[in-house]
Structure of PAP2 superfamily protein:
Amino acid sequence: MKYKIAKIISLITVVPIIAFFTVLLSFIYGTSYSGGIGWLIYCIAFLTVIPLLAYPVHRIIPAFRTQGRKIERKLAFIFAVVSYVIGSILTFVCGAPILVKKIFMAYLFSGGFLAFINKGLKIKASGHACGVSGPITLLTNLIGLKMLWLFLIMPVIYWSRINLKRHNIRELILGTFVGIFSTLLAVNLF
């Protein structure tokens, strides 16, 4: 039972799902400078839909399916980072509102720093922890301190990832700080 609960928590807190709710809250509370429904759909497409496509691609293509969870995780990361890069470039090319630029820069910086730490430095940092702490930091920056209570979700994420044997506490803490730091850096540049 404990494993099933941990698995459910893990599934509903994957980065693209958290991105969906982050974007939705950002647009609800930041409507005066969000740029309207078109930019909302744009954000959902690049931060949720395209990154989630990694999971059906993993299941559909036999060469990926036979490689299991490791390649699924890799595909999810690749789909997300490529989508963040393209989405970020287009925000500048298309003259997106500042809210949209901040959201994309936060995700781009988080993905970039996480890739550098995981691949470049060969230190495993939790993408789940980064993918939750960064958006909470973003929401706190965009909406206000009333969003700080969302950090209460972090111990639940930690519990889930440790029980699934996906991360240890060090990897989770590192992922959390990557999310917070990269998001603060991104939003303060704009």
Q: What stands out?
A: Residues 69-93 form the longest helix (25 residues). The mean pLDDT is 92. The chain has one domain: 2-189. The two ends are 45 Å apart (CA to CA).
